[in-house]
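Below is how a single chain appears once it has passed through the pipeline. First comes the sequence as given, then the structure the pipeline wrote out for it. We keep one example in the README because the format questions we get most often are answered faster by looking than by reading.
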Amino acid sequence: MALRTDILTWSKGDLMETYWKVFFKRQNTTSGWKRDLYTIFLNRSARKHGGYIGKDTTFASRPRLPHGLHGIYISRYAAIGEECWIYQNVTIGEVNGKAPVIGNNVFIGANAVIVGDIKIGNNVTIGAGALVVKDVPDNAKVLSQPARIVLCETDEAKKAEIDKMEDVHVPAARKPRTAAPNKPYPHDLDALGHVKSNKAEETDRTFELPHIPDAE
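Resulting structure:
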């Protein structure tokens, strides 16, 4: 069964065999420069796979990651036990420098969040989307709150909405304005009600002075 799982994981590019070999070499080395060198490789590899595992995180054995490191964040202060299954987008984070200690044979579903100075017992199942901030005893199951319906559109509600849309008044196309003969439009009047002059017309208009007879 384990071999079949490894083959399927390898086919998806999520086996990360080299990553975990280097990871446990770093975890067991006492040389400072080797540790730094391993950390550079692991950080680049984890970023390539879309996840993060802190440089001081400890694993009792290689974890099972069915979807690789995609979206997984594990704090540098966390400790993970043996034969743990961790699915995508899981967060194991710290609060004030304290992170969870997770036991053996723990199943952590997708999008679960485990944070703080807490302890997760052995053989625990943490369901998808669960938020865990307290200790969990051995052999327990932790499930997230199921989704609840907050709005449901019944057939009557849909019909009422359609009727409401049909009652909306849509104005007809605007007709061109017509004015009475020799009567100016309102926008042609100034504030005192006088007809505004058209400067363009005044420039083209000629004036004739009235004839004034010579004085006798």
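The helical segments are 2-11, 17-28, 32-48, 155-166, 199-204.

See the next section for the split statistics.
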